[in-house]
């Protein structure tokens, strides 16, 4: 008797699952344009850029990002926080599709939530079924899940390559991985070249109120062009769009005669991107008396702390490294073993933003560059807001 009940229950559950999948497929069919965005760096920005370009052309577009803060952007451009009863789960995408249908969206631009290779495939093949796939790049991050090497990260991301459609990417180092996956799934691969990036002029980038990377703009414009949006219209929409809270911004502060330039590089959490932004900041502010790097560590991201700790010795040096957040000992141990002078390390673990600011003042000069790296989550976003709310002006225009 128990066996019969178990068989009946199992059958009902399987039947319900099939019915739910059928209903979800019907809802997906009501959204003719589905852009699935993935990658190590820049996917939130690229998702926002594509959605803004489509909105500017008159296409009713919803967009969901999972960057610094999860956000649902409706066709009017208004943003709403994504409610999560517990921790993030890929099944959340089903609810986002439901909302897009309710808004009668003609296009849905959605950021991939998955990290594990098997979930990369599930998100694309079962939940989104993109008409346009996008992979920004493949760099060293989340190596505990997607690694152990950068090449493995590329293979993991390739799990969301859509079937029999188009894949756009700005990746060049591991393009062979995406070529292989695209061929296997009969998808056309459209790679953004150096020439495409060079066509993004300083005037194009000057329209943004934050620091946007030319690669991201070139990639987003290529997707918009494929969907029939002309370059001028798409760019206008991108300029007017609200950036992700973790987007790279710079703020100037005059604090009782001390001039501070604060650069938000917290969201650039892989070594390659972080080094690029650090060098950009140094070039922007070459005459400052002190250069301070604020490293926001997370105890649940030990691999990231180790990667940055190993890499930082190869970058132009800072005068001090202020360690905030949790698990700072991981970065400190790795960095000192790699050659950083331990006397340059300042521990400010578990301190709130106001106390972090006071600590930074102790190690700043009459003119200082202070740049945050590693993680925007946790106290990182609080520090950004603290400086932004007290700045005299934004720079990097």
Automatic annotation (TrEMBL):
SUPFAM superfamilies: MurD-like peptide ligases, catalytic domain. GO terms for molecular function: acid-amino acid ligase activity; ATP binding. One of its GO terms (biological process) is capsule polysaccharide biosynthetic process. It comes from the Bacteria. InterPro entries: Capsule_biosynth_CapB (IPR008337), Mur-like_cat_sf (IPR036565), Mur_ligase_cen (IPR013221), MurCDEF_pg_biosynth (IPR050061). GO terms for cellular component: membrane. Pfam families: Mur_ligase_M. Gene3D superfamilies: Mur-like, catalytic domain. Residues 37-151 form the Mur ligase central domain. PANTHER family: PGA SYNTHASE CAPB, UDP-N-ACETYLMURAMATE--L-ALANINE LIGASE-RELATED. This is Capsule biosynthesis protein CapB. It comes from Bremerella volcania. The gene is capB.
